[in-house]
Sequence to fold (346 residues):
Amino acid sequence: MKTLFLSFCLLASGFLMPVNAHQPATTDTTTHGDAPAPVAAVNLTMFGRGIYPGDDTTYAQLKTSGFTTVILSSFYIHSNGDVYSGDDHKEPIIHDGKYVGSKEWLQRVASLKQAPSTVSRIEILLEGRWFNQPPNTYDYIQDWYDASKTVPGIVTGIGTNSTLYNICKIFKEDIGVDAVCIDDESVYNSLSIAQLGEMIGQLGMRMTLCPFRKTEFWKDVICRSKPGLIDAVYLQCYDGGRNNVPGQWQQKLNTGLPIYPIFLCRGAFSNCGPVHNSKSPADIKAEMIRFRKDYPGMTGGAIWQLADVKSYIRNNCAVQDPQSGRAVSVSQYVTDLKNSLQEGLE
Fold:
């Protein structure tokens, strides 16, 4: 580990705040409602793109999957303050500060932690734009967090009557999530994310990070955030992050936060082969073992994403590309992926 670098973060309000990267992640920032569920000691995470509104069978399979965290993904903020699921670009889940999405989905999400279940934590992923996409999510968070700005149709700032506060309040009170996962891949404004995080903490949730590049940005987000607010980092180890190594990121971030590698599973982009660095269960296990050699404190990993799991089965990948795996059902593939993460930690 590199020598501790003592630095200070300059906040917009004009005062200095010490680096929090080495503060313990157990400080309670909750001031609203029940305390959020912590990450599991061995945290096995499934990103849940492809399950809005979903079906009862898929949610029942998740409950018995062995995964401990389900991240509802992906969700996007639009210019009028509406929030959309990436699974449904026509009808919002939040409109005019109210939840207007599928009531069946809310019931399915609530069922995830109802015993018997291996799922102990639910997060929601706020995804931003990729290359050459129109503005969304983090562009608007950057524009709206400052109460001194005027944006037509939007209540700016992070106060209790603000547009951003109402969105996050619905995440907590209607959807029932424990944490908001930040997947900013374009804007990279650390002050706006830290301010959003302060509000998330006040609402009784945690914040997690989902980076694939720009370690200095993510380090600054950690630096600006209150101790205990951020309690996990999910590191993209595919596509643009294909060369990422969790141990190296831990050193660069200079943090004691747990870092979990995310793997793109076969079936991604409706392809049985290794597109965008997607991996078979055997590949994932081997990578987990490799990562743990220089990061012995690694205590979990994650799979992106359930939509690709279903694509794998739909395309009969076990037959079309035997090297991709052996699963012939969604439940079997989910189990194989969970085992690849867990066995890589043993």
